[in-house]
Amino acid sequence: MLLDLLRMKKSIVILTGGGPAPGMNTVVGSIAKTFIQNDYRVLGLHGGYKGLFSPDPKYCELDFLLADSIFNRGGSYLMMSRYKPTDIDFKENFNLSFFKDNNIHLLVTVGGDDTASTANRIAKFLADKNYHIANIHVPKTIDNDLPLPQNIPTFGFHSAAAEGTKIAATIYEDARTSGNWFVVSAMGRSAGHLALEIGATCHYPMIVIPEMFNKTSITAGKIINMAISSIIKRKIMGIPYGAIMISEGVFHELSHSEIEACGVKFTYDEHGHPELGKISKAQMFGEMLENKLKALNLSVKSRPVEIGYEVRCVTPIAYDLMYCSELGMGVYKLFSEGITGCMVYLDLNGNIKPLYLKDIQDPETGKIPPRGVNIHTDKVQQIFTYLMNYITEEDYQAAKKYVADPAEYDFKKILNW
Predict the structure, then answer these.
(1) pLDDT in tens, the chain (417 residues)
(2) What is the SS3 string spanning the chain?
(3) Can you give the pTM of this predicted structure?
């Protein structure tokens, strides 16, 4: 009897897709609290989309006490996955009964652009079955590379950067204490936002991000020469230590043959593709740097450090706690206004707005182009000009003490600036 009454009550379902970002629980908890106050039943689906294509989906009821206990925690209470349904899944495995039996009126997804695209596909599929639901997506990524309007950050970025800064600052203190150099790699598959934010905050003398290579191709040799440029410049300055921050995005721009030539051992997925995510970029660049330093007969100790998974599930800082709470409440605002098939965002004036995939997708490919770092702003140019240390033409004479051809390590010449 109670189960029948619950099923008569209007419900929403929330799922989380992709990888975690600080603030996932804040979004989910805030959505749950808001809808519960407006007399909705709130279901949380475990395993991303996998549950919707299973005869026995794993889900829980998100009551107020549960939502209140998770909203300020890191990680994701709802288990996540990167599952992406195929055409066959829609034809043979879609669990329409789950929606009907639970009287679901809204599907809320939290994830990246793939998660959003699949949500639109599900809503259309259900409409074709004469079961109409709304769908609203909350975009997240610590990479900060989704092109939200007004350069608004994606949730989780600031918390990940704050945690990364703690790690990077300790590394820099170790470098200063021991007279060593560290090669640090930070997450960011398509853009260098995280690496730049962490590296600049800690005053790293060399930061390498893919957006810097706007006038030349990215090669491992150029990256290593930029690192050596910083090391030599600091030697000229009388400083025997430092740290080099490299965005993993530059690694993904290298050819597989160049990576293999560096001695990297790949594992391969079921499609025969190398699993690049399992490779330590810091270790790879660190080994290449050590080999080049030995060839130049430069006595420098270096150590690799990876900043990646350590920052994805941290407790969100105040910025993201407030930001994600607003996004969660904003889902109800859009839903109550009859808006569907969109992403929710908070504009710079503090207003909740819908953002449709079609407005940010490439019209030809249908993909969302990543938002890179705008290297032409004063903010970024000041980092390059005043924070970082590297060889310029004025240093050539002094640099000849360490290398025969200083121009080869001239930062601006390497980048063709």
Answers:
(1) 445 555 679 999 999 998 999 999 999 999 999 999 999 999 999 999 998 999 999 999 999 999 999 999 999 999 999 888 888 989 899 999 999 999 999 999 998 877 877 887 888 888 888 888 899 999 999 999 989 999 999 999 999 999 999 999 999 999 999 999 999 999 998 899 999 999 999 999 999 999 999 999 999 999 999 999 999 999 999 999 999 999 999 988 887 777 777 666 667 665 555 566 677 889 889 999 999 999 999 999 999 999 989 999 999 999 999 999 999 999 999 999 999 989 999 999 999 999 988 888 888 877 788 899 999 999 999 999 999 999 999 999 999 999 999 999 999 999 999
(2) CHHHHHHHCCEEEEEEECCCCCCHHHHHHHHHHHHHHCCCEEEEECCHHHHHHCCCCCEEECCHHHHHHHCCCCCCCCCCECCCCCHHHHHHCCCHHHHHHCCEEEEEEEECHHHHHHHHHHHHHHHHCCCCCEEEEEEECCCCCCCCHHHCCCECHHHHHHHHHHHHHHHHHHHHHHCCEEEEEECCCCCCHHHHHHHHHCCCCEEECHHHCCCCCCCHHHHHHHHHHHHHHHHHCCCCCEEEEEEHHHHCCCCHHHHHHCCCCCCECCCCCECHHHCCHHHHHHHHHHHHHHHCCCCCCEEEEEECHHHCCCCCCHHHHHHHHHHHHHHHHHHHCCCCCEEEEECCCCCEEEECHHHHCCCCCCCCCCCCCCCCCHHHHHHHHHHCCCECHHHHHHHCCCCCCHHHHEHHHHCCC
(3) 0.91
Indicate the domain borders of the chain.
2-155+316-360, 161-313+374-414
Measured from the Cβ of residue 132, the count of other Cβ atoms closer than 10 Å reads: 10
List the structure tokens of 13. 């379902």
- The tokens of 181 are what? 């150099």
Q: Does domain 2-155+316-360 have CATH number 3.40.50.450?
A: yes
Q: Do 2-155+316-360 and 161-313+374-414 show the same overall fold?
A: yes
At the topology level, CATH places domain 161-313+374-414 in Rossmann fold (3.40.50)
